[in-house]
Specification:
This protein is about 45% helix and about 10% strand. The chain is of the alpha+beta class. The protein has one domain: Winged helix-like DNA-binding domain superfamily/Winged helix DNA-binding domain (Arc Repressor Mutant, subunit A, Orthogonal Bundle). The longest helix is centred in the middle third of the chain and has 13 residues. It is globular. It starts with a helix and ends in a 24-residue tail after the last helix. The mean pLDDT is about 80.
Amino acid sequence: MQSTKQQLRKEYPQMYSQDLLNNMFRHPYTKIALVMRDLHVSRPTATGYLDKLAESNYLQKEKFGRSNYYINLPLVNCLMDTPNRHHQPENSAPEIKTTPVSKE
């Protein structure tokens, strides 16, 4: 988060704010409505901010239905790369249990 903060300040001093940074790291994703609410900006401003961040690879823009979601991949990777995430040794495969199906 600290390195992103420094990079954003340098690259986008006109749009950088602690509220924007908090919005990016509060959840693994954000969307236009959340930026509008958290930063108290208009829809076009929020869209512009998020699109710039996606173009600069800070966020990854994904469209689901009619909404755009902006995913913070470094945060997702950090959350997914936690020790004992599945309570299994690192090199072991997950155990898959199957139930036989009767062919009657």
